[in-house]
Amino acid sequence: LLAAPTGLGQGPGRRWRPSPAQNPLEKVTAQAELSLPQLAGRWFLVGMASRCSYLTEHNHQLEATAVTVTIPDGQSLAISTFRKLDGMCWEMRQRYLPSQAHRHFFLKGHGYGSKVDVVVGKTDHRSYVILYYQKGQSISIKLYGRTSQVSDTVVKKFEQHIRAAGLSEDVTYYFPTYGFCDSADEFHILD
User: How far apart are CA 171 and CA 51, in angstroms?
Assistant: First the structure.
């Protein structure tokens, strides 16, 4: 019962090993022409697809979320996220550092396995951007708009990206279009 089925070994004395799991971001086609200066400015989180258990359990508490993007050094993205938490407006600051792959970024975290890879999947720079986030083998996709509402065409593109990544509409959430924070009562730097 415990023996490996015939043909699975790779010769005498060798153990069968499963092939390593493919990195989900390897299947993502990054934006062909990306202009970082054109990404600068204010964006609104419109939607997100993720299998995150916290998001699944608390999706009824989603808050309007806005981000401001700056390009401090011509290579990285400085992200200031403004959202309400317990009735107060908070600002969270992050730095998306350039990765070795073109149009790819990463967020450093504390401890093993805390790095998050980020890919700009699609943008027209004027009205929307679709970002992919991967931590370990878990992938999330976010849709940002220059306004809190985007066209149906953009929503359809977002939903195509969701399906292509193996996610579905039951793990897709859309954010409120009102109640944004313009400034922060408190801030936190995430590095």
Answer: 6
The region, left, alpha or beta by phi > 0 then psi within -120 to 50, assigned to residue 99 is beta
Q: How far apart are CA 172 and CA 167, in angstroms?
A: 8
**Residue 123 belongs to what domain range?**
36-174
Give the separation between CA 181 and CA 91, rounded to whole angstroms. Answer: 9
Residue 100 domain-assigned (yes or no):
yes
Residue 87 lies in a domain: yes
- pLDDT tens-digit readout, 66-107: 999 999 999 999 999 999 888 889 999 999 999 987 778 999
Q: Is the pTM of this model over 0.70?
A: yes
Number of domains the chain is built from: 1
Give CA separation, 7 vs 2, 14, 82, 123, 183, in Å: 15, 12, 56, 48, 64
Query: Position 96: which residue type?
Result: Y
